[in-house]
Write a structure and sequence with these properties.
Residues 32-98 form the Cupin type-2 domain. InterPro entries: Cupin_2, Flavonoid_dioxygenase-like, RmlC-like_jellyroll, RmlC_Cupin_sf. This is Cupin type-2 domain-containing protein. It comes from Sphaerimonospora thailandensis. Pfam families: Cupin_2. This protein is mostly beta strands and 111 residues long. The chain has one domain (17-106): Jelly Rolls (Sandwich). 0% of the residues lie in helices and 50% in strands. It contains no helices and 6 strands. The protein has strands at residues 17-24, 27-34, 48-61, 66-70, 74-77, 84-99. Strands 1, 2, 3, 4, 5 and 6 form a 6-stranded antiparallel beta sheet that branches. The protein is globular, with a radius of gyration of 14 Å.
């Protein structure tokens, strides 16, 4: 067992910020913070993602739909799907779970 400290704490910067808290081969966990009025620069990932919104308000955009998100929202985004948070009108704090661990799908097999 591991107690994960600082997960879900808003990172007070002037831009979107991601802090990883846990990495094991099958998943990784981090906190994504976007200050109100700022842009989300993320690009599609090669891993599946689950977002758990802890605080704030925004919309999550994909080419197929846009949904409002706020504390309590839980959203699944499949690997490769273009997406980003838009219209962040209150500081957004999101727990992000990647499966497998973020960027491991791009790592070359050493053998």
């Amino acid at each position: 067992m591991k107690v994960i400290t600082n997960a879900g704490r808003f990172c007070a910067t002037n831009q979107a910020a991601y802090e990883e808290h846990l990495r094991v081969p099958c998943l990784s966990l981090g906190t994504y913070s976007i200050p109100a009025g700022r842009l989300d620069p993320q690009k599609p990932h090669t891993e599946d993602e689950i977002y758990v919104v802890l605080a704030g308000h925004a919309k999550l955009w994909t080419p197929r739909s846009t949904v409002e998100v706020q504390a309590g929202s839980v959203i699944f985004v499949p690997a490769g799907e273009e997406h980003r948070f838009i219209e962040v009108d209150r500081d957004l704090t999101v727990l992000v779970v990647f499966g497998p661990a973020e960027q491991t799908a791009n790592e070359a097999d050493p053998e």
